[in-house]
Specification:
alpha+beta, 6 helices, 7 strands, 35% helix, globular
């Protein structure tokens, strides 16, 4: 059952695939704003300036990047990346899952509960693609984010002590997954 804030957010948000022409600057802005928000709260995960337009251009080419807006023509409220494999964190896997990365909301425009609505939309997309699991990871040291995903119905299924991530960094991640069903 949706909580009241998620229900209200779902009524306000529209979703579309990001495009290389016109959305790259906005994706970088969203990511940097989310990184600054984390730092202000003592969360050590993302850094402003860490990902640039080339990162999102590659993600658009290799997978999917989605934008949430306030209504079909409104300002950006958030975004996420959707991958169809994730060997750095999960190793080689059969094609049964979609992998959510960089789930982010714009704290200035996103209504309360928007993060859960974005996550649910990613889950719907994965199910529509014919995959049965939504997978994601978070830094092992980020208990707050792990609890957020667990509260959204995700189960911890393992840890990867030495994930090779963006910028050549190696770090530990907690692996989480949730079963999704086609509508």
């Amino acid at each position: 059952m949706k909580n009241t804030s998620s229900y209200a957010a779902s009524a306000l948000l529209s979703f579309r695939r990001a495009e290389a022409d016109g959305d790259l600057t906005e994706l970088v802005r969203l990511r940097d704003a989310a990184a600054r928000w984390q730092i202000e709260r003592g969360i050590e995960q993302w850094q402003p300036g860490e990902l640039d337009e080339d990162h999102f251009r590659r993600r658009l080419h290799e997978g999917e990047v989605w934008l949430a807006t306030l209504g079909p023509d409104g300002p950006s409220a958030g975004a996420w990346e959707l991958w169809w494999d994730d060997e750095p964190a999960w190793g080689a896997q059969p094609p049964v899952a979609g992998y959510v990365h960089r789930l982010m909301t714009d704290r200035r425009t996103a209504p309360p509960g928007a993060g859960r609505v974005l996550l649910a939309e990613a889950e719907r997309r994965i199910a529509a693609y014919g995959r049965e699991l939504c997978r994601l990871d978070c830094l092992t040291s980020n208990d707050r984010l792990r609890r957020y995903y667990e509260d959204a119905g995700y189960a911890v299924v393992g840890e990867q002590a030495g994930k090779n991530g963006d910028g050549g960094r190696t770090y530990g991640v907690t692996l989480l997954e949730k079963r999704v069903q086609a509508a």
